[in-house]
Design a protein that fits this description.
Its cofactor is pyridoxal 5'-phosphate. 40% of the residues lie in helices and 13% in strands. It contains 16 helices and 14 strands. α5 (132-140) links the parallel β3 (124-127) and β4. It is globular. Bound molecules: ligand F0G. Ligand F0G binds at residues 50, 52, 99-101, 131, 133-134, 188, 192, 221, 223, 261, 263, 272.
């Protein structure tokens, strides 16, 4: 008999969460304009909105926070962080930032400027898939963001180990025909937007080599780097005997720069990194932008204690017992849903189960937001908060005002690290199974208030008849 995998930690401190009645949830949801983003967290029982900054820190992290050096310049904690980065990733130059998008905002304009100096007239970034703030920062920097994700990721029922992979033919074509406009390639590990799906080592090597051979910088968007390394160890026999730390080094050996939201695998509640392997000149320029935007170069918008916690979190992220239990928990929830016939992105991703709302609510049109409808129904049923990753998040084309077509209509059940137990997962699964049984009673949504940009965060909705 196969044994279950117990969590490699015990609980030392608990935070009570509050179960509400259906009537309370109904009134909270109405007050929130039928938008779970606007709910107060105390009205949420199990919060699966995001895995970003919502995980639990370890006792070692908390202990090290007391040792944080709060000096404005030259903080000891900065040097600890930068040494850790060098040890784990072989990157010489570290800039701390307040979170992942902080790295994007200081880095991308510099790269666009460099590309323009070399003759780019229509600058473009290529990625397996840009995360939405990444795309936003590419656009703010005056460039376009193009996604070159492999075809298998678009069909949720197809099982493919590497749904985060680049379509290498498309990448090679872009490089062949549009080389001078390409600012950089961004390898997002794991690929959040298509379901927390990993990218294979082979694909990382090939994509990076293609770029390098044409003088194009390679960036890793490293938010979930450790989970990607774990999938490589599990799924690629060439790496089954390698340590996670070695796999991480090999992945990062292909990058010139990495940006990281440390709120995910970095295991902290706030923080990020913008790091350079050996390009000192670019590092210096990024530091110059860091000062007015994030803060002085040795704190980047963070307290010394935040940097201390991050240095420990990055090391803990590589712990294989942690990764095994983490990925197993997400898989556990995914498999429970699958066993009840609920369609999800397969195989289950690293940080979340992505439920295919298009299949559950086939007659609700994208512009009536089937995944948002499902999120609301799940909240009403159970107090569980999930998030829409679909047409609502995609938004409108700024030129035409038309709804941008979305590759998916996902409801993401995002699992914070070291926070909930499998009993919580059982409750989430049972609740969603009950909701899906009543799917034909759910009503489409339309806007009562639609903000011009980033509308998913503050929009308000009303229900309409089918
Ligand atoms: N890159 C990826 C792949 C991400 O998933 C995120 C954030 C970022 C960059 C930006 O980092 O939030 O620290 O500024 N993802 C969160 C999520 C918000 O819910 O998936 P940030």
């Amino acid at each position: 008999m196969s044994r279950s995998i117990p969590e490699p930690w015990r609980i030392k401190m608990v935070e009570p969460i509050r179960m509400t009645t259906k009537a309370q949830r109904k009134s909270a949801l109405i007050e929130a304009g039928l938008n779970p983003f606007i709910l107060k967290s105390e009205d949420v029982f199990i919060d699966l909105l995001t895995d970003s900054g919502t995980g639990a820190m370890s006792d070692r992290q908390w202990a090290n926070m007391f040792l944080g050096d709060e000096a404005y310049a030259g903080s000891k904690s900065y040097y600890l962080l930068s040494q850790t980065v060098e040890q784990l990733f072989d990157f010489q130059y570290t800039i701390p930032v307040h979170q992942g998008r902080g790295a994007e905002q200081i880095l991308f304009p510099l790269l666009v400027e460099l590309a323009k100096e070399k003759g780019a007239s229509e600058p473009v970034f290529l990625s397996n898939h840009h995360f939405d703030t990444t795309k936003a920062h590419v656009e703010i920097a005056g460039a376009k963001a193009k996604n070159l994700i492999c075809a298998s990721s678009l069909q949720t029922e197809i099982v493919d180990d590497w749904k985060g992979n680049f379509d290498l033919n498309k990448l090679s074509n872009e490089i062949k025909h549009n080389c001078k406009n390409i600012v950089a390639i961004i390898i997002t590990i794991t690929c959040n937007s298509v379901g927390g799906q990993p990218i294979s080592m082979g694909n990382i090597h090939s994509a990076a080599r293609m770029a390098r051979d044409s003088g194009i910088p390679v960036i890793i968007d490293a938010a979930r780097f450790a989970e990607n390394a774990y999938f490589i160890k599990q799924r690629d026999s060439q790496f089954s005997h390698e340590s996670i730390s070695k796999i991480v080094k090999e992945m990062f050996s292909e990058a010139d720069i990495f940006t990281m939201s440390a709120k995910k695998d970095g295991m902290v509640n706030i923080g990020g990194l913008c790091c350079f392997r050996n390009n000192e000149s670019l590092f210096r320029q990024a530091q110059t932008r860091c000062v007015p935007m994030e803060g002085f170069i040795t704190y980047g918008g963070l307290a010394g204690r935040d940097m201390a916690a991050m240095a420990i979190g990055l090391q803990e992220a590589l712990n294989e017992d942690h990764l095994r239990s983490r990925i197993a928990q997400v898989e556990y929830l995914g498999h429970k849903l699958q066993q009840s016939g609920i369609p999800i992105q397969t195989p289950v991703g690293g940080h979340a189960v992505f439920v295919d709302a298009r299949k559950i609510l086939p007659d609700i049109k994208p512009e009536n937001f089937p995944a948002q409808v499902l999120c609301n129904a799940l909240y009403l049923e159970s107090g569980v908060r999930a998030v829409e990753i679909g047409s609502l998040m995609m938004g409108r084309d700024p030129m035409t005002g038309q709804q941008e077509p979305s590759l998916f209509e996902f409801m993401r059940l995002t699992i914070p690290r070291r926070t909930y137990t499998d009993n919580h997962m059982n409750y989430v699964a049972d609740s969603l199974i009950d909701v899906v049984k009543k799917a034909d009673m759910l009503k489409p949504l339309e806007f009562e208030y639609e903000p011009k940009i980033l509308r998913q965060f503050t929009a308000r909705f009303r229900e309409i008849e089918r």
